[in-house]
Specification:
The protein is of the alpha+beta class. Helices cover 46% and strands 21% of the residues.
């Protein structure tokens, strides 16, 4: 099992990519979307979860999207939570669940730690984190080895940035990993 991740500058492109991945036969349970929400474009209806502190919160309606079914339902049920150093993000799917479930662990490892924990190289995880911090959206897909290349191509076709090139830009701007 591999994790295929795409960074998108535009939420609509990310949504389109996620829908297309599901059309390929990938279960919506294996597709995750995580977007910057500092501008509250994905809503601001949050309720603090107990026992996590540090501004950790999740929407009251986070489970609704899962009940609707499919990626569109997944996206409709975006949960909102704060990640120190990253800010408010909106997320749905297994990746968001891992971040929310990490609680205080998310304070330590955040998105970089979660992505690295599912097999994304640390350097790339840092670039994805920076991309979300700057307003981007990531789509992360759990894929078997046979489908990983096709999923990566689908994400790219729908507008995912070249993470190596973007990482180079970030490093030239002073990002230290």
């Amino acid at each position: 099992m591999k994790t295929v991740v795409g960074l998108f500058d535009d939420f609509a492109q990310a949504k389109s990519a996620a829908v297309e991945v599901e059309r390929m036969g990938i279960s919506h349970n294996d597709v995750s979307v995580l977007a910057n929400n500092e501008t509250e474009v994905h809503g601001a209806n949050t309720v603090a979860t107990e026992g996590h502190g540090m501004g950790h919160a999740i929407t009251k309606d986070a489970g609704v999207g899962a009940e609707i079914g499919g990626v569109l339902g997944l996206i409709a049920g975006l949960g909102l939570f704060a990640i120190p150093g990253l800010g408010w993000v909106a997320g749905a799917g297994w990746l968001a669940g891992m971040l929310a479930g990490a609680g205080t662990g998310a304070v330590i490892g955040g998105l970089v730690g979660v992505l690295a924990g599912v097999g994304v190289p640390h350097e790339h995880a840092s670039y994805y984190n920076e991309g979300v911090r700057r307003g981007g959206t990531i789509v992360a897909v759990k894929a078997d080895d046979m489908n990983a290349a096709q999923i990566a191509q689908t994400l790219s076709t729908h507008g995912a940035v070249n993470i190596e090139e973007r990482g180079s830009t970030y490093r030239n701007e002073g990002l230290v990993i």
